[in-house]
Amino acid sequence: MRLFRLAKIVTVGLRFGLDRIVLEADTSGRLAKVWQVFFFWRRFDESRGVRLRRALESLGPIFVKFGQMLSTRRDLLPPDLADELALLQDRVPPFPVERALGVIEDFYQKPIDEVFRNFNRTPVASASVAQVHFAELPDGTEVAVKILRPGIERVIAHDIALLETAAIMLEKLWVEGRRLKPREVVAEFSKYLNDELDLMREASSCSQLRRNFTDSALLVVPEVYWDWCGKSVMVMERMHGVPISQTEALRAQGTDLSALSRAGVEIFFTQVFRDGFFHADMHPGNIFVHADGRYIALDFGIMGTLNEEDKNYLAQNFLAFFKRDYRRVALAHIEAGWVPAKTRVDEFEAAIRTVCEPIFDKPLKDISFGKTLLRLFQTARRFEMEVQPQLVLLQKTLLNIEGLGRQLDPDLDLWKTAKPFLERWMDEQMGWRALLAGIKDEAPNWAATLPQLPRLAHKALTEPERRDRIHREEIARLEATQRRQNRLLGLIGVLLVAMVGMELYRLLG
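C-alpha coordinates predicted for Ubiquinone biosynthesis regulatory protein kinase UbiB (509 residues):
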Protein backbone atom coordinates (compact mmCIF):
# COMPACT_ATOMS: atom_id res chain seq x y z
CA MET A 1 0.00 0.00 0.00
CA ARG A 2 2.74 2.43 0.96
CA LEU A 3 4.68 1.63 -2.23
CA PHE A 4 1.62 2.38 -4.36
CA ARG A 5 1.11 5.69 -2.54
CA LEU A 6 4.77 6.59 -2.95
CA ALA A 7 4.58 5.73 -6.65
CA LYS A 8 1.58 8.03 -7.02
CA ILE A 9 3.42 10.89 -5.28
CA VAL A 10 6.43 10.47 -7.59
CA THR A 11 4.17 10.30 -10.64
CA VAL A 12 2.26 13.45 -9.66
CA GLY A 13 5.53 15.23 -8.89
CA LEU A 14 6.92 14.43 -12.32
CA ARG A 15 3.64 15.33 -14.04
CA PHE A 16 3.68 18.81 -12.52
CA GLY A 17 7.43 19.28 -12.83
CA LEU A 18 8.19 19.47 -9.10
CA ASP A 19 11.58 17.91 -9.82
CA ARG A 20 12.54 21.12 -11.61
CA ILE A 21 11.98 23.13 -8.44
CA VAL A 22 14.61 20.99 -6.73
CA LEU A 23 16.98 21.04 -9.70
CA GLU A 24 16.84 24.85 -9.85
CA ALA A 25 18.78 24.92 -6.57
CA ASP A 26 21.80 23.36 -8.32
CA THR A 27 23.75 26.50 -9.22
CA SER A 28 26.05 24.60 -11.59
CA GLY A 29 23.13 23.53 -13.75
CA ARG A 30 24.82 20.26 -14.66
CA LEU A 31 22.26 18.04 -12.93
CA ALA A 32 19.39 19.87 -14.64
CA LYS A 33 21.00 19.26 -18.07
CA VAL A 34 21.38 15.55 -17.39
CA TRP A 35 17.77 15.35 -16.16
CA GLN A 36 16.55 17.17 -19.26
CA VAL A 37 17.94 14.36 -21.44
CA PHE A 38 15.43 11.94 -19.91
CA PHE A 39 12.47 14.33 -19.74
CA PHE A 40 13.08 16.50 -22.80
CA TRP A 41 9.47 16.15 -23.90
CA ARG A 42 7.94 17.99 -20.94
CA ARG A 43 6.81 21.60 -21.34
CA PHE A 44 5.17 23.71 -18.64
CA ASP A 45 3.24 26.91 -19.31
CA GLU A 46 2.38 27.50 -15.64
CA SER A 47 4.67 28.97 -12.99
CA ARG A 48 6.38 26.68 -10.49
CA GLY A 49 4.11 27.96 -7.70
CA VAL A 50 0.96 27.06 -9.60
CA ARG A 51 2.37 23.63 -10.46
CA LEU A 52 3.21 22.97 -6.80
CA ARG A 53 -0.26 24.02 -5.68
CA ARG A 54 -1.99 21.83 -8.28
CA ALA A 55 0.22 18.86 -7.38
CA LEU A 56 -0.75 19.10 -3.71
CA GLU A 57 -4.42 19.39 -4.65
CA SER A 58 -4.06 16.22 -6.75
CA LEU A 59 -2.48 14.31 -3.86
CA GLY A 60 -5.45 14.86 -1.57
CA PRO A 61 -6.60 16.71 1.56
CA ILE A 62 -3.63 15.90 3.81
CA PHE A 63 -1.18 17.31 1.27
CA VAL A 64 -3.44 20.34 0.73
CA LYS A 65 -3.32 20.97 4.47
CA PHE A 66 0.46 20.54 4.40
CA GLY A 67 0.66 23.16 1.65
CA GLN A 68 -1.47 25.53 3.72
CA MET A 69 0.90 25.13 6.64
CA LEU A 70 3.94 25.58 4.37
CA SER A 71 2.53 28.87 3.11
CA THR A 72 3.02 30.31 6.61
CA ARG A 73 6.74 29.43 6.64
CA ARG A 74 7.90 32.40 4.60
CA ASP A 75 11.20 32.15 6.40
CA LEU A 76 11.80 28.93 4.44
CA LEU A 77 10.01 29.30 1.10
CA PRO A 78 10.62 31.72 -1.78
CA PRO A 79 7.84 34.33 -2.00
CA ASP A 80 6.30 33.03 -5.24
CA LEU A 81 5.78 29.56 -3.74
CA ALA A 82 4.47 30.89 -0.41
CA ASP A 83 2.02 33.24 -2.14
CA GLU A 84 0.63 30.47 -4.36
CA LEU A 85 0.31 27.96 -1.53
CA ALA A 86 -1.64 30.56 0.46
CA LEU A 87 -4.37 30.19 -2.19
CA LEU A 88 -5.00 26.56 -1.27
CA GLN A 89 -8.55 26.00 -0.11
CA ASP A 90 -9.42 22.90 1.88
CA ARG A 91 -12.39 21.99 -0.34
CA VAL A 92 -12.83 18.28 0.24
CA PRO A 93 -15.79 16.23 -1.02
CA PRO A 94 -18.00 15.08 1.89
CA PHE A 95 -17.96 11.44 2.89
CA PRO A 96 -21.24 9.48 2.50
CA VAL A 97 -23.91 10.22 5.07
CA GLU A 98 -24.16 6.50 5.87
CA ARG A 99 -20.59 6.60 7.19
CA ALA A 100 -21.35 9.76 9.17
CA LEU A 101 -24.36 8.06 10.76
CA GLY A 102 -22.18 5.03 11.49
CA VAL A 103 -19.66 7.17 13.41
CA ILE A 104 -22.45 8.81 15.43
CA GLU A 105 -24.30 5.58 16.25
CA ASP A 106 -21.04 3.84 17.15
CA PHE A 107 -20.16 6.67 19.52
CA TYR A 108 -23.57 7.00 21.20
CA GLN A 109 -24.38 3.27 21.02
CA LYS A 110 -27.92 4.00 19.90
CA PRO A 111 -29.79 4.83 16.64
CA ILE A 112 -29.45 8.37 15.32
CA ASP A 113 -33.15 9.10 15.87
CA GLU A 114 -32.74 8.37 19.59
CA VAL A 115 -29.85 10.83 19.85
CA PHE A 116 -31.24 13.85 17.97
CA ARG A 117 -34.78 15.02 17.40
CA ASN A 118 -33.75 15.91 13.86
CA PHE A 119 -30.51 15.30 11.93
CA ASN A 120 -29.90 16.94 8.54
CA ARG A 121 -28.40 14.29 6.27
CA THR A 122 -26.80 16.92 4.00
CA PRO A 123 -23.47 18.24 5.35
CA VAL A 124 -23.05 22.02 5.50
CA ALA A 125 -19.24 21.91 5.50
CA SER A 126 -16.58 19.34 4.70
CA ALA A 127 -12.83 19.45 5.28
CA SER A 128 -9.89 17.06 5.34
CA VAL A 129 -10.41 15.91 8.93
CA ALA A 130 -14.15 16.26 9.60
CA GLN A 131 -17.48 17.43 8.26
CA VAL A 132 -20.42 19.27 9.84
CA HIS A 133 -24.17 18.56 9.87
CA PHE A 134 -26.96 20.61 11.44
CA ALA A 135 -29.23 18.88 13.95
CA GLU A 136 -31.59 19.41 16.89
CA LEU A 137 -31.15 18.08 20.41
CA PRO A 138 -34.13 16.30 22.05
CA ASP A 139 -35.23 19.60 23.66
CA GLY A 140 -35.25 21.36 20.26
CA THR A 141 -31.93 23.21 20.66
CA GLU A 142 -30.32 23.86 17.26
CA VAL A 143 -26.80 22.48 17.08
CA ALA A 144 -23.93 21.87 14.68
CA VAL A 145 -22.50 18.34 14.79
CA LYS A 146 -18.88 17.90 13.75
CA ILE A 147 -17.98 14.33 12.79
CA LEU A 148 -14.45 12.99 12.38
CA ARG A 149 -13.79 11.52 8.95
CA PRO A 150 -13.83 7.69 9.29
CA GLY A 151 -10.38 6.10 9.00
CA ILE A 152 -8.63 9.47 8.88
CA GLU A 153 -6.11 8.45 11.56
CA ARG A 154 -4.73 5.68 9.34
CA VAL A 155 -4.59 7.96 6.28
CA ILE A 156 -2.78 10.68 8.20
CA ALA A 157 -0.27 8.28 9.76
CA HIS A 158 0.44 6.84 6.30
CA ASP A 159 0.94 10.21 4.60
CA ILE A 160 2.99 11.62 7.47
CA ALA A 161 5.32 8.62 7.20
CA LEU A 162 5.76 9.36 3.50
CA LEU A 163 6.40 13.04 4.18
CA GLU A 164 9.02 12.13 6.78
CA THR A 165 10.75 9.86 4.25
CA ALA A 166 10.63 12.61 1.63
CA ALA A 167 12.05 15.11 4.14
CA ILE A 168 15.02 12.85 4.91
CA MET A 169 15.72 12.35 1.21
CA LEU A 170 15.41 16.08 0.58
CA GLU A 171 18.01 16.84 3.24
CA LYS A 172 20.44 14.27 1.87
CA LEU A 173 20.04 14.88 -1.87
CA TRP A 174 19.43 18.63 -2.12
CA VAL A 175 22.07 21.20 -1.21
CA GLU A 176 19.40 23.57 0.11
CA GLY A 177 17.65 20.82 2.04
CA ARG A 178 19.21 21.45 5.44
CA ARG A 179 18.48 25.17 5.36
CA LEU A 180 14.79 24.46 4.66
CA LYS A 181 14.62 22.13 7.71
CA PRO A 182 12.14 19.72 6.07
CA ARG A 183 12.08 17.24 8.96
CA GLU A 184 11.32 20.04 11.42
CA VAL A 185 8.52 21.29 9.16
CA VAL A 186 6.97 17.81 8.84
CA ALA A 187 7.16 17.30 12.62
CA GLU A 188 5.42 20.64 13.16
CA PHE A 189 2.72 19.72 10.64
CA SER A 190 2.24 16.30 12.25
CA LYS A 191 1.71 17.89 15.67
CA TYR A 192 -0.97 20.30 14.44
CA LEU A 193 -2.72 17.63 12.39
CA ASN A 194 -2.83 15.10 15.22
CA ASP A 195 -4.22 17.76 17.54
CA GLU A 196 -7.15 18.12 15.12
CA LEU A 197 -7.94 14.41 15.36
CA ASP A 198 -9.28 14.78 18.91
CA LEU A 199 -12.56 16.70 18.79
CA MET A 200 -12.62 16.87 22.60
CA ARG A 201 -9.49 19.00 22.33
CA GLU A 202 -11.24 21.27 19.83
CA ALA A 203 -14.29 21.45 22.09
CA SER A 204 -12.13 22.53 25.03
CA SER A 205 -10.49 25.22 22.89
CA CYS A 206 -13.90 26.49 21.83
CA SER A 207 -15.03 26.57 25.45
CA GLN A 208 -11.90 28.44 26.54
CA LEU A 209 -12.27 31.08 23.82
CA ARG A 210 -15.96 31.50 24.68
CA ARG A 211 -15.04 32.03 28.34
CA ASN A 212 -12.38 34.59 27.37
CA PHE A 213 -14.98 36.60 25.44
CA THR A 214 -17.96 36.27 27.77
CA ASP A 215 -20.30 39.27 27.30
CA SER A 216 -17.97 40.66 24.61
CA ALA A 217 -19.32 43.34 22.28
CA LEU A 218 -16.90 42.18 19.57
CA LEU A 219 -16.93 38.39 19.36
CA VAL A 220 -19.41 35.57 19.97
CA VAL A 221 -18.31 31.96 20.30
CA PRO A 222 -20.68 28.95 20.21
CA GLU A 223 -21.49 27.04 23.38
CA VAL A 224 -20.23 23.46 23.63
CA TYR A 225 -22.73 20.78 24.70
CA TRP A 226 -20.38 18.51 26.59
CA ASP A 227 -22.83 15.67 27.23
CA TRP A 228 -22.89 14.98 23.48
CA CYS A 229 -19.13 15.37 22.82
CA GLY A 230 -16.38 12.81 22.38
CA LYS A 231 -13.16 12.25 20.47
CA SER A 232 -14.98 11.58 17.17
CA VAL A 233 -18.08 13.79 17.61
CA MET A 234 -18.39 17.41 18.75
CA VAL A 235 -21.75 19.11 19.30
CA MET A 236 -21.97 22.88 19.68
CA GLU A 237 -24.47 25.69 19.39
CA ARG A 238 -25.61 26.44 15.85
CA MET A 239 -24.63 29.99 14.93
CA HIS A 240 -26.64 32.20 12.58
CA GLY A 241 -24.83 34.84 10.60
CA VAL A 242 -23.49 36.01 7.26
CA PRO A 243 -20.11 34.71 6.01
CA ILE A 244 -17.62 37.55 6.28
CA SER A 245 -16.69 37.13 2.62
CA GLN A 246 -20.20 38.19 1.53
CA THR A 247 -19.69 41.94 1.80
CA GLU A 248 -22.85 42.85 -0.11
CA ALA A 249 -24.99 40.76 2.24
CA LEU A 250 -23.24 42.41 5.20
CA ARG A 251 -24.07 45.87 3.86
CA ALA A 252 -27.66 44.76 3.27
CA GLN A 253 -28.06 43.80 6.95
CA GLY A 254 -26.66 47.21 7.97
CA THR A 255 -23.17 46.16 9.08
CA ASP A 256 -20.58 48.96 9.20
CA LEU A 257 -17.64 47.38 7.34
CA SER A 258 -15.12 49.95 8.59
CA ALA A 259 -16.13 49.33 12.21
CA LEU A 260 -16.05 45.59 11.52
CA SER A 261 -12.47 45.77 10.21
CA ARG A 262 -11.33 47.74 13.27
CA ALA A 263 -13.08 45.24 15.55
CA GLY A 264 -11.19 42.43 13.83
CA VAL A 265 -7.88 44.07 14.67
CA GLU A 266 -8.90 44.58 18.30
CA ILE A 267 -10.08 40.95 18.59
CA PHE A 268 -6.74 39.75 17.27
CA PHE A 269 -4.67 41.84 19.66
CA THR A 270 -6.97 40.99 22.58
CA GLN A 271 -6.53 37.28 22.00
CA VAL A 272 -2.77 37.58 21.59
CA PHE A 273 -1.81 40.05 24.31
CA ARG A 274 -4.55 39.77 26.91
CA ASP A 275 -5.14 36.02 26.75
CA GLY A 276 -2.10 34.51 25.01
CA PHE A 277 -4.64 32.17 23.37
CA PHE A 278 -5.80 32.90 19.84
CA HIS A 279 -7.78 31.45 16.95
CA ALA A 280 -5.08 30.53 14.42
CA ASP A 281 -7.28 29.64 11.45
CA MET A 282 -9.10 32.88 10.79
CA HIS A 283 -9.74 32.48 7.08
CA PRO A 284 -13.08 33.79 5.72
CA GLY A 285 -14.72 30.34 5.80
CA ASN A 286 -14.37 30.23 9.59
CA ILE A 287 -15.82 33.67 10.37
CA PHE A 288 -19.45 34.79 10.20
CA VAL A 289 -20.95 38.13 11.20
CA HIS A 290 -23.95 38.34 13.54
CA ALA A 291 -26.87 40.63 12.75
CA ASP A 292 -25.72 42.91 15.60
CA GLY A 293 -22.29 43.35 13.98
CA ARG A 294 -20.30 40.96 16.19
CA TYR A 295 -17.87 38.45 14.78
CA ILE A 296 -18.79 34.76 15.03
CA ALA A 297 -15.83 32.39 15.35
CA LEU A 298 -16.09 28.84 14.01
CA ASP A 299 -13.74 25.82 13.74
CA PHE A 300 -11.33 25.67 16.68
CA GLY A 301 -9.07 22.88 15.50
CA ILE A 302 -6.00 25.14 15.28
CA MET A 303 -5.34 27.44 18.24
CA GLY A 304 -2.15 29.26 19.16
CA THR A 305 -0.70 30.00 22.59
CA LEU A 306 1.93 32.44 23.84
CA ASN A 307 3.60 32.66 27.23
CA GLU A 308 4.23 35.90 29.14
CA GLU A 309 7.76 36.20 27.76
CA ASP A 310 6.49 35.92 24.18
CA LYS A 311 3.74 38.47 24.81
CA ASN A 312 6.09 41.01 26.34
CA TYR A 313 8.58 40.54 23.52
CA LEU A 314 5.87 41.03 20.88
CA ALA A 315 4.34 44.04 22.61
CA GLN A 316 7.71 45.76 22.91
CA ASN A 317 8.41 45.10 19.25
CA PHE A 318 5.01 46.30 18.05
CA LEU A 319 5.22 49.49 20.09
CA ALA A 320 8.77 50.10 18.98
CA PHE A 321 7.68 49.63 15.37
CA PHE A 322 4.80 52.06 15.80
CA LYS A 323 7.20 54.62 17.30
CA ARG A 324 9.81 53.81 14.62
CA ASP A 325 12.28 53.03 17.37
CA TYR A 326 14.24 50.47 15.38
CA ARG A 327 17.08 50.40 17.87
CA ARG A 328 14.63 49.15 20.53
CA VAL A 329 13.47 46.46 18.09
CA ALA A 330 17.06 45.35 17.48
CA LEU A 331 17.85 45.31 21.21
CA ALA A 332 14.68 43.31 21.96
CA HIS A 333 15.78 40.60 19.53
CA ILE A 334 19.27 40.44 21.05
CA GLU A 335 18.00 40.47 24.65
CA ALA A 336 15.56 37.66 23.84
CA GLY A 337 18.43 35.60 22.44
CA TRP A 338 16.79 35.36 19.02
CA VAL A 339 19.88 36.73 17.31
CA PRO A 340 23.47 36.09 18.47
CA ALA A 341 24.78 38.31 21.26
CA LYS A 342 27.70 39.26 19.00
CA THR A 343 25.30 41.02 16.59
CA ARG A 344 26.12 44.69 16.04
CA VAL A 345 23.08 46.66 17.17
CA ASP A 346 23.65 49.50 14.70
CA GLU A 347 23.80 47.14 11.70
CA PHE A 348 20.71 45.22 12.79
CA GLU A 349 18.87 48.49 13.46
CA ALA A 350 19.71 49.79 9.98
CA ALA A 351 18.51 46.56 8.35
CA ILE A 352 15.16 46.68 10.21
CA ARG A 353 14.70 50.35 9.33
CA THR A 354 15.22 49.56 5.66
CA VAL A 355 12.41 47.01 5.76
CA CYS A 356 9.87 48.88 7.87
CA GLU A 357 10.23 52.56 7.10
CA PRO A 358 8.60 52.40 3.63
CA ILE A 359 5.31 50.97 4.95
CA PHE A 360 4.45 53.62 7.54
CA ASP A 361 1.80 56.28 6.91
CA LYS A 362 0.22 54.13 4.22
CA PRO A 363 -3.29 52.68 4.25
CA LEU A 364 -3.64 48.92 4.34
CA LYS A 365 -4.46 48.77 0.61
CA ASP A 366 -0.97 50.07 -0.20
CA ILE A 367 1.07 47.66 1.92
CA SER A 368 1.46 43.91 2.19
CA PHE A 369 2.25 42.13 5.42
CA GLY A 370 3.27 39.14 3.34
CA LYS A 371 6.01 41.08 1.57
CA THR A 372 7.03 42.87 4.77
CA LEU A 373 7.27 39.58 6.67
CA LEU A 374 9.28 38.08 3.82
CA ARG A 375 11.79 40.92 3.90
CA LEU A 376 12.01 40.68 7.69
CA PHE A 377 12.71 36.94 7.41
CA GLN A 378 15.40 37.59 4.81
CA THR A 379 16.95 40.13 7.16
CA ALA A 380 16.67 37.66 10.04
CA ARG A 381 18.52 34.98 8.08
CA ARG A 382 21.29 37.43 7.33
CA PHE A 383 21.73 38.02 11.06
CA GLU A 384 21.40 34.31 11.94
CA MET A 385 18.05 34.80 13.67
CA GLU A 386 16.43 31.58 14.90
CA VAL A 387 12.86 31.00 13.81
CA GLN A 388 10.56 30.71 16.84
CA PRO A 389 8.06 27.86 16.30
CA GLN A 390 5.53 29.37 18.71
CA LEU A 391 5.22 32.43 16.44
CA VAL A 392 4.58 30.59 13.18
CA LEU A 393 0.82 30.41 13.84
CA LEU A 394 0.85 34.06 14.84
CA GLN A 395 2.41 34.98 11.50
CA LYS A 396 -0.26 32.94 9.70
CA THR A 397 -3.03 34.66 11.69
CA LEU A 398 -1.58 38.10 10.97
CA LEU A 399 -1.71 37.33 7.24
CA ASN A 400 -5.36 36.26 7.64
CA ILE A 401 -6.09 39.57 9.37
CA GLU A 402 -4.46 41.40 6.47
CA GLY A 403 -6.70 39.63 3.98
CA LEU A 404 -9.86 40.37 5.98
CA GLY A 405 -8.84 44.00 6.42
CA ARG A 406 -8.32 44.49 2.70
CA GLN A 407 -11.70 42.93 2.00
CA LEU A 408 -13.68 44.96 4.52
CA ASP A 409 -11.94 48.33 4.48
CA PRO A 410 -8.95 48.87 2.16
CA ASP A 411 -8.31 52.25 3.83
CA LEU A 412 -7.92 50.77 7.30
CA ASP A 413 -4.87 52.16 9.07
CA LEU A 414 -3.72 49.14 11.01
CA TRP A 415 -1.05 51.06 12.91
CA LYS A 416 -3.39 53.71 14.29
CA THR A 417 -5.99 51.07 15.15
CA ALA A 418 -3.59 48.82 17.04
CA LYS A 419 -1.32 51.35 18.77
CA PRO A 420 -3.78 52.58 21.48
CA PHE A 421 -4.65 49.00 22.39
CA LEU A 422 -1.00 48.01 22.75
CA GLU A 423 -0.15 51.11 24.77
CA ARG A 424 -3.04 50.36 27.12
CA TRP A 425 -1.94 46.74 27.44
CA MET A 426 1.67 47.74 28.20
CA ASP A 427 0.42 50.21 30.79
CA GLU A 428 -1.61 47.44 32.42
CA GLN A 429 1.47 45.20 32.44
CA MET A 430 4.05 47.72 33.64
CA GLY A 431 2.30 50.84 34.95
CA TRP A 432 0.35 51.63 38.11
CA ARG A 433 -2.54 49.45 36.91
CA ALA A 434 -0.13 46.50 36.89
CA LEU A 435 0.82 47.32 40.51
CA LEU A 436 -2.83 47.42 41.59
CA ALA A 437 -3.59 44.22 39.71
CA GLY A 438 -0.63 42.51 41.36
CA ILE A 439 -1.80 43.61 44.81
CA LYS A 440 -5.30 42.35 44.04
CA ASP A 441 -3.98 38.96 42.89
CA GLU A 442 -1.69 38.55 45.90
CA ALA A 443 -4.14 39.82 48.55
CA PRO A 444 -5.64 36.36 49.30
CA ASN A 445 -2.15 34.96 49.83
CA TRP A 446 -1.25 37.86 52.11
CA ALA A 447 -4.36 37.22 54.23
CA ALA A 448 -3.15 33.68 54.86
CA THR A 449 0.49 34.70 55.40
CA LEU A 450 0.09 37.74 57.70
CA PRO A 451 -0.77 35.75 60.88
CA GLN A 452 2.37 33.68 60.34
CA LEU A 453 4.71 36.67 60.00
CA PRO A 454 5.94 36.69 63.66
CA ARG A 455 6.81 32.98 63.52
CA LEU A 456 8.43 33.36 60.08
CA ALA A 457 10.41 36.39 61.23
CA HIS A 458 11.65 34.53 64.35
CA LYS A 459 12.61 31.57 62.19
CA ALA A 460 14.47 33.82 59.74
CA LEU A 461 16.39 35.50 62.58
CA THR A 462 17.31 32.26 64.37
CA GLU A 463 17.99 30.22 61.26
CA PRO A 464 21.58 31.48 60.75
CA GLU A 465 22.47 30.79 64.41
CA ARG A 466 20.94 27.29 64.20
CA ARG A 467 22.82 26.56 60.97
CA ASP A 468 26.10 27.76 62.56
CA ARG A 469 25.53 25.49 65.59
CA ILE A 470 24.82 22.51 63.34
CA HIS A 471 27.94 23.24 61.30
CA ARG A 472 30.08 23.50 64.46
CA GLU A 473 28.68 20.21 65.77
CA GLU A 474 29.32 18.52 62.43
CA ILE A 475 32.90 19.79 62.30
CA ALA A 476 33.51 18.59 65.88
CA ARG A 477 32.07 15.17 65.00
CA LEU A 478 34.32 14.89 61.96
CA GLU A 479 37.37 15.92 63.96
CA ALA A 480 36.59 13.29 66.64
CA THR A 481 36.16 10.64 63.96
CA GLN A 482 39.46 11.65 62.41
CA ARG A 483 41.25 11.38 65.79
CA ARG A 484 39.81 7.87 66.36
CA GLN A 485 40.92 6.82 62.91
CA ASN A 486 44.42 8.19 63.54
CA ARG A 487 44.72 6.27 66.83
CA LEU A 488 43.49 3.07 65.16
CA LEU A 489 45.98 3.47 62.31
CA GLY A 490 48.76 4.04 64.86
CA LEU A 491 47.84 0.87 66.73
CA ILE A 492 47.73 -1.13 63.50
CA GLY A 493 51.18 0.24 62.61
CA VAL A 494 52.63 -0.84 65.97
CA LEU A 495 51.17 -4.32 65.60
CA LEU A 496 52.59 -4.67 62.08
CA VAL A 497 56.05 -3.61 63.24
CA ALA A 498 55.89 -6.08 66.15
CA MET A 499 54.79 -8.90 63.86
CA VAL A 500 57.56 -8.19 61.37
CA GLY A 501 60.11 -8.06 64.22
CA MET A 502 58.97 -11.39 65.63
CA GLU A 503 59.15 -13.02 62.20
CA LEU A 504 62.69 -11.73 61.66
CA TYR A 505 63.77 -12.96 65.10
CA ARG A 506 62.36 -16.43 64.25
CA LEU A 507 64.16 -16.61 60.92
CA LEU A 508 67.50 -15.38 62.30
CA GLY A 509 67.33 -17.43 65.46
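The two ends are 96 Å apart (CA to CA).
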